[in-house]
Amino acid sequence: MASKQKVWVLGNGQLGAMLSHAGQPLAIEVLPVDIMTPTDVKLLLADDDIITAEREQWPESALSLQLSSHRNFINGPVFGRLADRYSQKSLLDELKVATAPWELVDDNTDVNALYAKYGERVLMKRRTGGYDGKGQHWLKQAENGQIPADWRNLAIAEQAIDFDEEVSVVGVRTHSGECFFYPLTLNLHQDGILMASISPLPRLAPLQDEANAMLGTIMHGLNYVGVMAMECFRVGEHLLVNELAPRVHNSGHWTQAGTHMDQFQLHLRALCNLPIQQPQVNFPCVMVNLIGIDKDDRWLSLPNAELFWYDKEVRPGRKVGHLNLSVHNTAMLEDSVAKLKSWMPLQYQAPLEWILRSSEF
Ligand code: ATP
Ligand code: MG
């Protein structure tokens, strides 16, 4: 018997765990690696093992180097390029993919010139390390906002986009350069953190071709293989790219319940050069992120809920799980959301109401 295909993952958080879960029915052994804790352990990597990552950045260590220098570290150069917002935004400009107007904040950047160019509110974002809205700093002309010295050369400045809503698309590119895309997902962010997603929504369908073309251009431009996510702002009839993730993504978690091939399996199939067809949507889905709250087994009593609990220590603002609610009929969704509203704390009331308001299937 041929030995099992192994896929090693740089990082051992929830994305790695969900990749492992998706690998099981394909008999792909997915091995997430903790690259944050220093260790002397050397991994037993075989030549035809495959290496991927569940994050864009990692500390350099003997362990991370062993993985990232393997000949089958797929998309190796892409991670660093997208992990730095400066090179990520430069790439979007080079590929002529529409994005929020921006520039590097360097020693010569004058805050008044930023206000003159972009308007009275300008968003600075750290070049690296930001996530869930961390690493952002708003400059407000009305408050005489100035550039902190320790943000120079380490941040970009972006025009504040008065968007209608936030959407994302998750797609895949195969070794032979074929691309497939899931339907657009509508996302609600609160304080920079994704709270909930809905997909597919018929009213977003007119934007799908534009989204696919943008992400396709990016994946081809990078000669990328596997799943990539593109977060966008919808401004009227068009999209602006906010940011890219060279990996499976939180806004694609709904595919676990709603499609015949979720984003985790799709990524593994692409990495392992297995056949891929267009993922089929079985039914619309709503995803609710569980952030900083304790597990509540009442969630399991909902008729249409699938719980993914990450088994991490619960801390304020930390993603500790998600709930996928499949939408077989609106009445069931409304009933489940009403129950969640009665069980969940204050910060969930607005996202749950948003779900009801936005769910037109
Ligand atoms: P993630 O966890 O998705 O990686 P992040 O913290 O890295 O997020 P962004 O996605 O760039 O950073 O920003 C977080 C949120 O901040 C966005 O989802 C959006 O709500 C808001 N935001 C970002 N850029 C802008 C902008 N130019 N104008 C207005 N709002 C913005
Ligand atoms: Mg984001």
Question: Can I get a quick summary?
Answer:
The protein is α+β, with helices and mostly antiparallel strands.
Q: Would you mind describing this structure in some detail?
A:
There is one protein chain. The protein has 361 residues and is α+β, with helices and mostly antiparallel strands. It folds into 3 domains: 69 residues, Rossmann fold (3-Layer(aba) Sandwich); 59 residues, Dna Ligase, domain 1 (2-Layer Sandwich); 194 residues, ATP-grasp fold, B domain (D-amino Acid Aminotransferase, Chain A, domain 1, 2-Layer Sandwich). The strands form 3 sheets. Strands 8, 9, 10, 11, 12, 13, 14, 15 and 16 form a 9-stranded antiparallel sheet that branches. Helix 1 crosses helix 8 and helix 9 runs antiparallel to helix 10. The longest helix is centred in the middle third of the chain and has 14 residues. The protein starts with a strand and ends with a helix. The model has no long low-confidence stretch (mean pLDDT 96). It binds adenosine-5'-triphosphate and magnesium ion. Magnesium ion binds next to loops.
